[in-house]
Design brief:
- Helices cover 0% and strands 53% of the residues.
- It has no helices and 11 strands.
- The strands form 2 sheets. Strands 2, 4, 5, 6, 9, 10 and 11 form a 7-stranded mixed sheet that branches. It has a 4-stranded antiparallel sheet with strand order 1-3-8-7, with no helix packed on it.
- The radius of gyration is 13 Å and the shape is globular.
Length: 116
């Protein structure tokens, strides 16, 4: 069993930055592919970035490419999402997901609001 806790969300002005953390307990994340999702009010949850457990390769959806960076610190059992040049349309609740061998775990999410 893996417990995931997201943190680092908040209110930020357009153009600002935030770093989200996804801290795991229960098991090491070394063998888990980790993804970040977000869900805005009235919209479906969308996957925006992921990082592989095998080779550290990363993926970004076009809307965040060049602005967001996913990384993992296996020693801290934590995955990060550095978000720069934030836009109002980035406003959403952000979730991390851990997946391996058919097992899937979600965190409770952290709210990001981009507004002046």
């Amino acid at each position: 069993q893996v417990q995931l806790v997201e943190s680092g969300g908040g209110l930020v002005q357009p153009g600002g930055s935030l770093r989200l953390s996804c801290a795991a307990s229960g098991r090491t994340l070394d063998y888990y592919d980790i993804s970040w999702f977000r869900q805005a009010p009235g919209k479906e949850r969308e996957g925006i970035s992921c990082i592989s457990s095998s080779d550290g390769s990363t993926y970004y959806v076009d809307s965040v490419k060049g602005r967001f960076t996913i990384s993992r610190d296996n020693a801290k059992n934590t995955v990060y999402l550095q978000m720069n040049s934030l836009k109002p349309e980035d406003t959403a609740r952000y979730y991390c997901k851990a997946m391996t061998d058919g097992y899937i775990y979600w965190g409770q999410g952290t709210q990001v609001t981009v507004s002046s």
